[in-house]
């Protein structure tokens, strides 16, 4: 027999019953009947006035009772008692059919029926049948008091006063809950469950409407009607600017980002001198929203203090540059008035104004910036600042720079939730929690050219529009991945089959391209697989490798091969020759020197986060440059000269070094049959002993891959591989079959191989021998399609 | 619980007690709400602010005069008079409207308070009146 709990006689139960009696369907019938009797009495019996009074009083009485039920009976104050049943909220109890004997199952059903519970389940991605099937067995022996006790413990965590549907669900799905298996099946963590519940609480709070005729609503609707009448009016001003008051009144009221920066701006604008602010931030970082929130707060303060309003005006820069004959005179005239209140001019594209305007307009701008009753807020991104604004030091000096840092992923998630609430009402689309999480994760990792929260909001709006066209209108993770892929300029649809196969067979694919380095290939492949699957919590690049070995053994070829296999093309590689970074000023080539130059490494990674970076001859780099790369290895990101954080977590980094090349010859010379493991150990010991790299430095890399010297048989294989490309090209383009004798092949390989330089000269050897021979032959006698050409050692004069 | 359970003394008495307490505290709430509405109306149309700026030019229309000096002087004086005249008229209208709003609010609040305080007596009176009407 399932255990039960009684909720009869609790405050919530009384409130629900009174509400049902007075304002339920039966109550309405009774009221209609009584009022009907009064109306009859008015028309048919004498003393009509009495019945009118009675009717009015009946209605007034109903109004009083309604207010009593809403304000007093339904009020849920902070409660402190041992009686668990008193903690149940009215919202949940409404859906309990038999309050006298409430079982665990009935608690669950009531939670699922409640709109708040339904919201949580929709966000978790569960359907009712799934839960019912799971709960049938799981809740049979479950004590409802245990569930309520667990739910009560969650009240403080979610700042709630009563146990509502979300808390019941959290208690059942939580760590020790009876339905915890459902959560695991849905691949959601307890953290995810907490986020959803926080989100639901926000959603519930956002639904609480302020009455249309409440004092607050009237104030925000009508503003201060008389106060703007004292401000200056000028036709030119109205043509050249747009009043932002209306926009500011619709500024987001929920989570306000960059509050500290908004306060800084407020402080700057009230200064007596240098009272202009330049808001610097990347596209999408929330500059405009912050500005609107500041304008809304400014207006609210002025309302509260009873002072005249400041006019917050957006300058129409294009209009100013092209629309008037004497923009300088007209604009200044319009702002000359020094009455109560002041102007805040917002310039959204200061860079455009500075690059498009002439000396007169610069003069106007300077006067504007120096004017005591006018403050200017300019908005720009770091690139625009360096290209256009910093080149006018006199104008730059008039501004106080306020840098907007990119918000965290957690804050972005909250902003996204609020944006979803705003879209929900009009779009009628469901965006599950997992889809929102996918948006934040995807844009965070793969879209480096814009900042949070803008880039995430863009994707959310796009997928909501797409979901409106389908039934049911639910945003899926696939839709999110597609939208993010477009912005990231690459297909990031999770571990798709192609990518999965690439990593799984990485070793085989590499072996086909890299000759004689099996040990190195296996070590590399295993490390890359681990990195991609993110064993442990990965906050660093997918893989970081130091490739050691003498020249011509395949280090660079390995990097190209990995770029081709993993990222789809050999040219998805950013190659940096550390010889060119041997000066201290070379740091600017990595993080930018404040010039807004697109060629620096950080800018390239921002545009293409999934790239392979090859650092050739690492030992040649200047120590300052080396430090930057070590920061990338340790932390997975780099902050450039513009203060922008670049994420390297989707990169693979290879560093090659010829350190120990001499030692390689020595070791192999002394022990020709040395095993790969012993060779590696001896080489590493030699390098460390020589002081070329410290053990701490070497440990920064995921793996140090040692390439052993090539032997002649390996060189023959290299030559064979290179010549195969020529054979295939001839077959495809000219229809000629080329056959090379084995001794010709060996001769070419011998020519292109040396112990010291490995197979570095192989390309040259093939050009000097085979390609030269073929060129001579084709010039003497043009080849015919279908011809078979056999090349011997004698032909090559070797 | 069943609707009939509401009539049980252990349920009905506390509910009635709570109702009585709530009913007796409501006049204070009504007065507080009146205060908030009065503040809101003042924020929308501020009588002190309108009086302070009564003689200021209407929206400070700025036009620079052209022509001979005398003509410029006349133009400026005329513009100022017109502008301030318009400002006075409109602001006085707004002040009147604001005063009317506040008075209406006060009347409404007093009436509402009066009704609330006298409601129990009125209720009894009306019940009696209806019964009398029915009997006769």
Q: How many domain units of chain B?
A: 1
Structural class of chain B: mainly alpha
Number of strands of chain A: 15
Q: Are there runs of chain B of 5+ residues with pLDDT below 50, and where?
A: none
- Shape descriptor of chain A reads globular
Main β-sheet of chain A: number of strands, strand sense, barrel status?
Answer: 6 strands, mixed
Helix/strand/pairing category of chain A: alpha/beta
Structure description:
The complex is a heterodimer of chains A (798) and B (136). Chain A has 39 helices and 15 strands. By secondary structure, chain A is an alpha/beta fold. Chain A folds into 5 domains: 11-207, no CATH class; 232-403, Rossmann fold, CATH 3.40.50; 409-490, Helicase, Ruva Protein, domain 3; 499-706, P-loop containing nucleotide triphosphate hydrolases (Rossmann fold, 3-Layer(aba) Sandwich); 712-791, Helicase, Ruva Protein, domain 3. In chain A, 40% of the residues are buried. Chain B has one domain. Chain B is 80% helix and 0% strand. Chain B has 3 helices and no strands. Chain B has helices at residues 9-44, 47-52, 69-135. Chain B starts with 8 loop residues before the first helix and ends with a helix. The mean pLDDT of chain B is 84. Chains A and B meet through helix 1, helix 3 and helix 12 of A and helix 1, helix 2 and helix 3 of B.
């Amino acid at each position: 027999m399932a255990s039960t709990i009684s909720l009869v006689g609790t405050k919530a139960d009384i409130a629900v019953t009174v509400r049902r009696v007075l304002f339920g369907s039966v109550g309405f019938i009774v009221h209609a009947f009584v009022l009907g009797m009064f109306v009859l009495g008015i028309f048919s019996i004498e003393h009509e006035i009495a019945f009118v009074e009675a009717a009015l009083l009946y209605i007034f009485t109903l109004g009083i009772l309604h207010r009593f039920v809403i304000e007093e009976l339904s009020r849920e104050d902070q409660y402190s008692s041992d009686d668990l049943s008193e903690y149940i909220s009215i919202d949940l109890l409404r859906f309990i059919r038999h309050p006298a004997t409430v079982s665990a199952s009935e608690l669950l059903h009531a939670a699922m029926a409640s709109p708040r519970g339904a919201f949580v389940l929709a966000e978790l991605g569960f359907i009712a049948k799934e839960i019912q099937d799971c709960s049938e067995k799981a809740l049979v022996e479950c004590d409802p008091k245990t569930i309520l006790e667990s739910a009560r413990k969650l009240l403080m965590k979610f700042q709630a006063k009563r146990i509502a549907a979300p808390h019941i669900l959290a208690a059942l799905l939580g760590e020790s809950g009876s339905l915890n298996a459902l959560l695991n099946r849905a691949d959601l963590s307890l953290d995810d469950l907490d986020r959803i519940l926080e989100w639901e609480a926000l959603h519930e709070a956002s639904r609480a409407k302020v009455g249309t005729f409440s004092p607050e609503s009237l104030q925000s609707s009508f503003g201060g009607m008389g106060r703007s009448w004292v401000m200056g009016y000028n036709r030119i001003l109205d043509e050249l600017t747009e009043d932002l008051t209306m926009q500011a009144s619709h500024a987001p009221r929920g989570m306000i980002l960059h509050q500290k920066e908004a306060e800084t701006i407020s402080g700057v604008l009230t200064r007596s001198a240098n009272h202009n602010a330049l808001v610097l931030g990347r596209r999408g970082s929330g500059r405009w929203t912050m500005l609107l929130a500041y304008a809304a707060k400014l207006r609210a303060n002025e309302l509260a203090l009873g002072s005249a309003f400041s006019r917050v005006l957006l300058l129409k820069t294009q209009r100013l540059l092209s629309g008037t004959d004497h923009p300088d005179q007209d604009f200044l005239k319009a702002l000359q008035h020094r009455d109560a209140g002041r102007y805040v001019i917002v310039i959204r594209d200061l860079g455009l104004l500075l690059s498009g305007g002439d000396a007169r307009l610069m003069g106007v701008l300077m006067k504007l910036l120096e004017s005591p009753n006018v403050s200017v807020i300019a908005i720009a991104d770091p690139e625009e600042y360096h290209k256009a604004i910093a080149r006018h030091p006199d104008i730059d000096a008039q501004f106080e720079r306020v840098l907007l840092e990119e918000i965290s992923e957690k804050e972005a998630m909250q902003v996204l939730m609020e944006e979803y609430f705003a879209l929900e009402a009009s779009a009628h689309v469901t965006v599950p929690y997992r889809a929102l999480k996918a948006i934040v994760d995807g844009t965070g990792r793969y879209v480096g050219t814009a900042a949070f929260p803008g880039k995430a909001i863009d994707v959310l709006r796009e997928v909501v529009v797409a979901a409106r066209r389908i039934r049911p209108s639910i945003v899926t993770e696939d839709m999110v991945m597609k939208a993010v892929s477009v912005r990231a300029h690459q297909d990031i649809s999770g571990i798709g089959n192609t990518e999965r196969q690439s990593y799984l067979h990485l070793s085989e694919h590499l072996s086909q391209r890299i000759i004689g380095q099996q040990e190195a290939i296996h070590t590399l492949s295993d490390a890359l697989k681990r990195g991609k699957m993110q064993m442990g919590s990965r906050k660093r690049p997918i893989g970081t490798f130091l490739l050691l070995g003498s020249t011509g053994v395949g280090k660079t070829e390995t990097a190209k091969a990995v770029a081709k296999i993993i990222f789809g093309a050999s040219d998805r590689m950013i190659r940096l020759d550390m010889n060119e970074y041997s000066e201290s000023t070379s740091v600017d080539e990595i993080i930018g020197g404040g010039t807004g130059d697109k060629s620096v490494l950080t800018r390239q990674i921002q545009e293409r986060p999934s790239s392979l970076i090859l650092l050739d001859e690492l030992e040649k780099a200047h120590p300052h440059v080396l430090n930057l790369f070590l920061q990338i290895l340790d932390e997975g990101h780099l902050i450039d000269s513009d203060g922008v954080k670049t994420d390297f977590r989707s990169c693979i980094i290879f560093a090659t070094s010829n350190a120990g090349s001499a030692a390689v010859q020595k070791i192999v010379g002394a022990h020709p049959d040395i095993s790969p493991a012993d060779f590696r150990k001896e080489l590493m010991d030699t390098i460390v002993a020589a002081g070329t790299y410290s053990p701490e430095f070497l440990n920064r890399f995921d793996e140090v891959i040692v390439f052993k010297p090539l032997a002649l048989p390996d060189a023959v294989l290299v030559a064979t591989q290179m010549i195969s490309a020529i054979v295939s090209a001839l077959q495809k383009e000219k229809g000629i079959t080329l056959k090379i004798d084995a001794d010709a092949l060996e001769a070419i390989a011998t020519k292109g191989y040396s112990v010291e330089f490995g197979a570095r000269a192989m390309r040259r050897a093939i050009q000097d021998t085979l390609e030269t021979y073929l060129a001579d032959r084709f010039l003497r006698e043009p080849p015919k399609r279908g011809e078979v050409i056999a090349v011997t050692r004698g032909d090559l004069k070797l | 619980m069943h609707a009939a359970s509401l009539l049980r003394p252990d349920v009905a008495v506390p509910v009635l007690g709570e109702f009585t307490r709530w009913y007796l505290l409501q006049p204070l709430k009504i007065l507080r709400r009146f205060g908030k509405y009065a503040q809101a109306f003042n924020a929308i149309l501020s009588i002190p602010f309108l009086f302070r700026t009564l003689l200021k030019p209407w929206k400070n229309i700025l036009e620079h005069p052209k022509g001979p000096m005398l003509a410029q002087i006349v133009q400026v004086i005329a513009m100022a008079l017109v502008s301030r005249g318009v400002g006075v008229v409109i602001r006085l209208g707004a002040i009147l409207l604001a005063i009317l709003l506040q008075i209406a609010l006060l009347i409404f609040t007093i009436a509402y308070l009066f009704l609330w305080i006298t409601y129990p007596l009125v209720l009894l009176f009306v019940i009696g009146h209806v019964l009398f009407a029915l009997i006769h």
